[in-house]
Amino acid sequence: MLRGMFATLLGPLPRPPLPDDAAAEALLDAVLGAQVQAGLEPLTDGGYALPGLDPVASWRATQSRASGLVKAVIVGPMSAGQPVAVVRTTLLGLVEAGCAWVEIHEPAATAIGADAAAGDRFADTHRALTADLAGVEGLHLSLAITGGNADAAGIGTILAGAYASLAVDLIAGPDNWRLVASAPGDRGIVCGAMAARPDGDESPELLLYAAGYAASTAGRGPARVGLATTGSYADLPWEVAVRKLTRLGEAARLAVAPAAERRAALDPRGVDIRSAALGRRAPTPRPPRPSMRPPRPPMRPPRPS
């Protein structure tokens, strides 16, 4: 399993610039190679899984061609419109195959809002989906929510399943910071902070702010925090997507680098006593940009005993 800050995808990549008749294996190798080159892990098939395979065989095939940990990505039952038993069969198959990291995507969570009945259905569905999996050694279950805000549902609803981490889109859903702040400290947080727009903010200051703020909540610490894309990059030019992956990987590395190295890599205006990018915590931290604001008032980390 990964140790320390990491970076990963929360959606597919565009088609690599290979000939139209390129083999499926070549496309998969290209998307895996781009992630490895950028320093991302866990890896995904980037939307280029080998055709004709069931989800378990697909994960096996991708893992066999990768040089690092590959996570399996499953669309959750509420977003896929499938019975929970069907999705659970796939999940159990992956666990049996030895998949160490399974990510359940549930963008449908953004539609729950304050509807108590919908929230109860979501919670019950994910309890059933992940039942008896909390204690499986070496297994990391992650819930991913992209495309909007899901904070109104409450953290008890969102993390009702046996999830070790929560990945949230903080660009399309800035109020998801409320979920981050209220998540128990033993749950990991994956900050979807690298926008899918070609002109989206790619600055290390923003990414390190997100990582630092998430690490400061509930005494979580940087070892339980990752950085990620915010969703699909499929419509981006390949070179733009690769640039974003590279900057995402660099930010994850900087997040755990010595303070002097971080200071040298950042805009001096982003380095002061109020900057979470350097691991310093002010009583009332404020985000540098309104597009990714944490809740107000923010949750303070507990005082050390």
Structure description:
By secondary structure, this protein is an alpha/beta fold. Helix content is 35%, strand content 11%. The protein has ten helices and seven strands. Strands 1-7-6-5-4-3-2 form a seven-stranded parallel sheet. Helix 5 links the parallel strand 3 and strand 4 (140-145).
> Low-confidence spans: pLDDT under 50, at least 5 residues?
272-290, 297-302
Q: Based on CA inertia axes, which overall geometry fits?
A: globular
Biggest sheet, strands in spatial order? 1-7-6-5-4-3-2
Query: How can the largest sheet be summarized?
Result: 7 strands, parallel
Computed Rg: 19 Å
Query: What is the helix fraction of residues, given as a range?
Result: 25-40%
Counted beta strands: 7
Structural class: alpha/beta
Structure annotation, total helices: 10
- Beta content comes to 5-15%
The end-to-end span amounts to: 29 Å
- List the helices and strands in order: EHHEHHEHEHEHEHEHH
Look at the structure and give the mean pLDDT: 90
